[in-house]
Write a structure and sequence with these properties.
Radius of gyration: 22 Å
Strand content: 15-25%
Distance between the termini: 51 Å
Number of strands: 25
Bound molecules: calcium ion
Number of helices: 12
Length: 447
């Protein structure tokens, strides 16, 4: 059990790591466009050449080798358990410790990396000993994903998609009461950069007499956020909403690739199956809830007349700060654009505050029947779409199921994805009085 004074000092230390005036002696971290300033310090799993992968921490264009910091005796006290867990080849052991050990490690690394801090005088020797350039490493899936659950928390997405599949009845009556989700497939959750194979499957158009089987003709992306479960809960126990944050380790970007033609034919009566489980890509950096602390905010208000959440899904704290003020972008680059040296072009921008349900509500609901969540489980937010044009997080919505294709700057059109298309998800948090932090990229090329 953590004493109150211990928790207070840990919060004070956390506040110091978020101080916008803090700079690092790792100069690339101080660039205004860096996703990884010293205020972020996300965890990742990396390896060099034939090394066994282990857990590191990103800063600027570098990764801190936590194992090297531990071996040199640079870490102490509450950070030791977390640092030792970083010697594993996945983050599961670190996540299992819960948030406080990771906070202690993050706090000590921040002190070691800050200009004027403990490591500043020794930067000439510490740099080569502790830092590895991100361009020299392979980044791996952050954790062994035991279970992957995908929610459906954007009411805008649910309404837009529902209208296409069920014009008379777009939003089912349970939507505003229950954080809707389904159990996805963990084995096909992969790290950014893994090639995306176009799935085969059954499809049956409205005028077809019988289904046909073949490669999907309606391959789509879904812009989502992955929440990584930290400390789990025992089977039969629940997680009150007031404790939900303590079970969320951090966030990554998630692309829940979807085959819409397969989905339309198979999804009733039991929900998504082969249309969704051929690949789900996550970005390699796990941004901790501690780093996201300055960007907590209320979700967009519910519409007049909507029901209040049932008591187990509602408290003042979640109402005030259940959301994360993240801006999420989707960019697309076709094979032709890549051959011409063109950069990916942005096709959507959405706000993570436009969700109907908070991540805390999703986690609490998930465990409300006694379902045991485990360290490294992924909870997908569901496609993040906003109410306005250009804020739809998938092509199904953006192109009205392919009927209104996007026209790219070079004149190419896209209703759904073609082979060779590259989809890049990015995300960042930015607000006055805080340093902007980002998530890196979640990339996949089709074909
Ligand atoms: Ca999804």
């Amino acid at each position: 059990m953590v004493s109150a004074s211990h928790a207070d000092s840990s919060l004070e230390a956390l506040a110091a790591t978020l101080d916008p005036s803090r700079r690092s002696w790792v100069s690339s971290a101080n660039a205004s466009e860096s996703d990884f300033p010293i205020q972020n310090l996300p965890f990742c799993v990396f390896s060099r050449a034939s090394d066994v992968p282990r857990v590191g921490v990103a800063i600027g264009d570098q990764i801190v080798d936590v194992h090297a910091a531990l071996s040199r005796g640079l870490l102490h006290g509450d950070a030791l358990a977390a640092a030792e867990a970083c010697s594993h080849r996945s983050m599961n052991a670190l996540m299992a410790l819960g948030r406080l050990p990771a906070r202690a490690l993050r706090t000590q690394l921040s002190e070691l990396l800050r200009a004027g801090g403990a490591g500043d005088d020794a930067r000439e020797s510490l740099g080569p000993a502790l830092l590895v350039a991100q361009r020299d490493v392979t980044l791996h899936l952050p954790a062994v994903v035991g279970d992957y659950t995908d929610f459906y928390a954007s009411v805008h997405h649910a309404t837009n998609v529902g209208r296409m599949f069920r014009p008379d009845n777009p939003l089912l009556p349970n939507y505003k009461w229950v954080p809707i989700g389904y159990h996805g497939r963990a084995s096909s959750v992969v790290v950014s950069g893994t090639p995306v194979h176009r799935p085969m499957g059954q499809r049956k158009g409205p005028t077809d007499d019988v289904p046909a089987v073949g490669p999907s003709r309606s391959l789509d992306y879904e812009l989502e956020v992955a929440a990584w479960v930290g400390a789990g809960n025992a089977l039969g126990s629940t997680i009150p909403l007031s404790a939900a944050d303590e079970h969320l380790f951090g966030l990554s970007l998630l692309n829940d690739w979807s085959a819409r033609d397969l989905q339309a034919w198979e999804y009733q009566p039991l929900g998504p199956f082969l249309a969704k489980n051929f690949t789900s890509s996550v970005s390699p950096f796990v941004v901790t809830l501690d780093a996201l602390e300055p960007f907590r905010a209320p979700l967009a208000p519910r519409a007049d007349g909507d029901p209040a959440p049932l008591p187990y899904l509602s408290d003042d704290r979640d109402r005030a700060r259940g959301g994360f003020d993240l801006t999420l972008d989707v960019s697309l680059r076709t094979a032709t654009m890549r051959a011409s040296g063109d950069a990916p072009v942005r096709v959507s921008r959405a706000s993570f505050l436009d969700l109907y349900w908070s991540l805390g509500q999703m986690l609490t609901h998930h465990a409300s029947n006694g379902c045991n969540l485990r360290p490294g489980d992924v909870l997908g937010s569901g496609t993040v779409s906003g109410p306005l044009d250009g804020a739809q997080g998938c092509l199904l919505e953006l192109t009205r199921r392919g009927a209104q294709p996007l026209t790219l700057p070079n004149g190419e059109q896209r209703g759904f994805l073609e082979d060779g298309d590259e989809v890049v998800l990015t995300g960042y948090a930015e607000r006055p009085g805080a340093v902007r932090i980002g998530f890196g990229h979640c990339i996949g090329v089709v074909g």
